[in-house]
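Supplementary Methods, section 5.1.

A reviewer requested that the exact input to the structure prediction be made available. We therefore reproduce it here, unchanged from the version used in the analyses.
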Amino acid sequence: MLYVSEGAARRNVLHYGLGVWLALTSTAALFFGTPGLYWVLAIAGGCAYTVATVLERCRLAIR
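The structure derived from this sequence is encoded token-by-token as follows.
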């Protein structure tokens, strides 16, 4: 929820989108069993952070 609030406060679409994605995937991961929960969080969350890192570097390079 920190990413959502920071993205909304600073009007940063990347952080807002990352926060929404993490909130949705963590909610969806609750429907899986114990090992599946951690796999969903690791794969979906890790990929989201990787994509956000690449997009942030591209955004800063444009400036």
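The mean pLDDT is 93. These observations are discussed further in the main text.
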